[in-house]
Design a protein that fits this description.
Length: 216
């Protein structure tokens, strides 16, 4: 079984990228990051990739007249690395349907909420304002619906009485850095696929909340 080729898309600091790089280097994930692509030249995640000896690419959306033109160029750039899996790790762009369809079943995203709750932005404050008992993160396959693809796995954290959006975000991030490498590991072991509009893990159709999460 050949090692999984990963292309990671980022816009910012790349902390989830770092977790995935570390997991590849340790052998936890059976694969390697072959390129890191950012739409922002100053994204710190590019430095993380360079420090690990990984190819980096910058494709600025500001140089394109439309979202469609940008995504067409991005699609070609991703394709040039022949990836098995495209990992969105804080890539702050809404993708066009044509790009999503091209990598259907081969593109994962992590979102800081217990989907389907709180799609979009400001998820931590929204969970606090709703007086939820739990918040967390979800890894899901990417579909045309924003933050709406089949959930693979979720990590929950309790919301504490004195939590702010920042303190809650910090605890969610800690879980993200375990959850995302775990799901990429499953994919790299050929245990995880997407069929139609649901995820399949170990030949079982996953429920809406995904597979049970336990820190391995």
């Amino acid at each position: 079984m050949a090692p999984t080729r990963l292309v990671v898309l980022i816009s910012g600091s790349g902390s989830n990228l770092q977790a995935i790089i570390d997991a590849c280097q340790s052998g936890y994930i059976r694969g390697s990051v072959v390129s890191v692509i950012s739409n922002k030249a100053d994204a710190y995640g590019l430095t993380r990739a360079k420090n690990a000896g990984i190819d980096t690419q910058v494709l600025s959306h500001k140089e394109f007249e439309s979202r469609e033109a940008y995504d067409a160029a991005l699609s070609d750039l991703i394709d040039s690395f022949d990836p098995d899996l495209v990992v969105l790790a804080g890539f702050m762009r809404i993708l066009t349907a044509s790009l999503v369809q091209k990598f259907r079943g081969k593109m994962l995203n992590i979102h800081p909420s217990l989907l389907p709750k709180y799609q979009g932005l400001n998820t931590h404050q929204r969970a606090i304002d709703a007086q939820d008992a739990f918040h967390g993160a979800s890894v899901h396959f990417v579909t045309e619906e924003l933050d709406g693809g089949p959930v693979v796995c979720q990590a929950k954290v309790p919301i504490l009485p004195n939590d702010t959006a920042d303190t809650l975000a910090q605890r969610v991030h800690e879980q993200e850095h375990k959850l995302y490498p775990l799901v990429v590991k499953w994919f790299s072991e050929r245990r995880l696929t997407m069929e139609a509009d649901y995820a399949v893990f170990d030949d079982q159709n996953l429920p809406a909340e995904g597979a049970p999460y336990s820190e391995e």
